Amino acid sequence: MAQDDAEHDALQGDLKNANNSGVDSVREKSNPQKDYDDIPGTYVFDGKRCRQGYHMNKFCKTLDSAENRARFKADPAAYLDQFPMTAEQRQAIEQREWLEMLKLGGNIYYTFKLAIVDQLSMQHVGGEMSGMTVDEFRQMMIDGGRRLDGNRSIGGDN
Question: In angstroms, what CA-CA distances link 76 with 1, 60, 93?
């Protein structure tokens, strides 16, 4: 595991150096917008988001350990300092902006580990992401989920 982390950190350093040398425009051209980018409220955890959210997800994964959860609860700022996240990612974690975490590369299975630290259920998180109360979200799911009307395309092809 440590070797994998070291290899990943080395690769991240290489990517950071490459980005600074103008490779970003090449990467953007090789990663055109995907069909699923047009679905409202949908943030598919693809390769791009995986790379983007690596350190945020790594932080969340550490919360599997009771010792790490206790350390995080005791001093969240110091604990988060261990992970080189962007300011936006850190803010999303600190403010528990669940949907923003997904936009910034968070994986729902990892970010939910943070919700568990806060003793929240999946219905709580789903409700917050949807702008609903827990009861409204739960009822929507019981009723068959979100309506498709108006939820198929940002571009208006509903």
Answer: 25, 12, 10
- Distance of CA 43 to CAs 5, 72, 103, 105, Å? 25, 27, 6, 8
CB atoms within 10 A of CB 136: 13
Looking at this protein, which amino acid is placed at residue 43? Y
Q: What's the confidence (pLDDT) of residue 22?
A: 47
Give the H/E segment covering residue 76: helix 76-80
What are the tokens at 150?
Answer: 């108006």
- At 80, the amino acid letter reads L
Tokens 């994986």 sit on residue = 107
Phi, psi at residue 42, to the nearest 5°? Answer: -110, 125
pLDDT tens-digit series, residues 9-38: 554 554 454 444 444 444 555 566 777 667
Burial class (CB in 10 A: 0-12, 13-18, 19+), 19: exposed
pLDDT digits (tens, 9 = 90+) for 98-132: 999 999 999 999 999 999 999 999 989 989 988 88
Q: Which residue has the tokens 């609860």?
A: 73
The residue to which tokens 């936006």 are assigned: 88
pTM of the model: 0.70
Residue entry with tokens 């440590």 = 2
Question: Does residue 125 contact residue 133 with C-beta atoms inside 8 Å?
Answer: no
Tokens found for residue 130: 């949807």
